[in-house]
Amino acid sequence: MRHVNDPAVIERLMDTPGTWAIVGLSQNEWRAAYSVSLFVRDTLGHRVIPVNLRAEEVHGEKGYAALADIPSDRHPIDVVDCFVNSRKVGAVVDQAIAVGAKAVWLQLGVVDDDAADRAKAAGLDVVMDACPQREIWHRRRPA
After folding, report:
1. How far is CA 48 from CA 109, 113, 115, in A?
2. Between the CA of residue 71 and those of 14, 19, 50, what are the distances in Å?
3. Whose CA is closest to 129, among 89, 99, 70?
4. Residue 25: Cβ within 10 Å count
5. What is the pLDDT of residues 70-114, one digit of tens each?
6. What's the CA gap between 59 and 106, in Å, rounded?
7. Averaged pLDDT, 60-72
8. 89: phi > 0 → left, psi -120 to 50 → alpha, else beta; which?
9. Could you give the CA distance from residue 102 to residue 13 in angstroms, rounded to a whole number?
10. Distance CA 123, CA 121 (A)
11. More confident site: 18 or 134
């Protein structure tokens, strides 16, 4: 079944302070994850945790190679923000479920309805094929 984003979920995730684990965030300033993560941190006020294969530190935050490596006692994950290929995002969503994340946010162009269904069945909020930087524009745009 095709996932449809709920505007109320988008609003809540963007407005409720929390910890966003950003999968695919590295020190590469040319990648969308780099600038979007700054927006999530500096404009929306969330804590950002980088998740990348090299476990690189980004924006002064310690990086982790996998979601399971993030110490849940210190950093419970509210949102897993996915900057990965659609063919690979299902595994990331499954990891998000396994670590007890509250939501998954699949970025623009990242679509996997089966993964979205699994996340919803596990009780996670799901946003798919959307970007918080663009969503803020929709909120401020006159009707």
Report:
1. 21, 26, 23
2. 23, 12, 13
3. 89
4. 27
5. 997 777 899 999 999 999 999 999 999 999 999 999 999 999 999
6. 21
7. 93
8. alpha
9. 10
10. 5
11. 18
SS3 30: coil
Cα separation, 136 vs 140, in Å, equals 6
Q: Where are the alpha helices (DSSP H) in the chain?
A: 7-15, 32-42, 86-98, 113-121, 132-140
Specify the amino acid at residue 37: S
Tokens representing 67 are: 């979601």
| Both tokens assigned to 129 | 């094929």
Specify the DSSP element, H or E, that contains 21: strand 19-23
Mean per-residue pLDDT over the chain, rounded = 93
Q: Could you give the dihedral angle defined by the CA atoms of residues 50, 58, 31 and 66, in that order, rounded to the nearest 10 degrees? A: -20
Quote the CA–CA distance of 106 and 118 in Å, as a whole number.
Answer: 14
Question: What are the structure tokens assigned to 76, written together?
Answer: 């419970």
